Amino acid sequence: MHITRLERRLSEAPGQAAWEASGLGAPADIETLTRRTTELEQQILDLRGELAERDEDLEAARAANRELMAQLNR
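Predicted structure:
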């Protein structure tokens, strides 16, 4: 049996639609996703830096608190 190009395309269309809807296929815009990934990685690095600064501030506050408590206990 000979299948025409139109028949083949019509039979493939539902499968292609299901493949795209499943999310298993390649993303439509790799460049946008790559850019967004880079932005998020930078945001993570920035947040880690802020967290490190806060940790240092917290440690300094704890040290000052220990010193004050030691002075009060003398």
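Summary: The chain has one domain: 5-73.
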